[in-house]
Amino acid sequence: MKFQDLLAYQKSFSLAMKIFEITKLFPKEEMYSLTDQMRRSSRSVPANIAEAYRKRVYPRHFHSKLTDSDAENSETQVWLEFSLKCNYIDKSVYTELSNESNEVGKLINYMILNPEKFGVQS
To answer: Which pTM does this prediction carry?
Structure first.
């Protein structure tokens, strides 16, 4: 199995791409602040999932990378909230992306709680 086959990876990658497209519409003055932060944190989620999967022969590294991914996902949720409050996205977009982020969080936590299902040997 490739890391690209993991549902958590697929969903987090898709979310990062949606965020990339949406942030293209943000004001230029946000380019090096909110836009950059949102893109970085959302892209870190699938990147850390990929790293975790490759480190699955080391249980502690697997767990550590997944908790990093979960933290980046939470950071993305904060930036989404700022985007809503700054009126860069509307409530429906916020709700859609937040729901997707919550789903990604659940998938990451499933991986953390069930490492053996992902080839981690204890």
So the answer is: 0.96
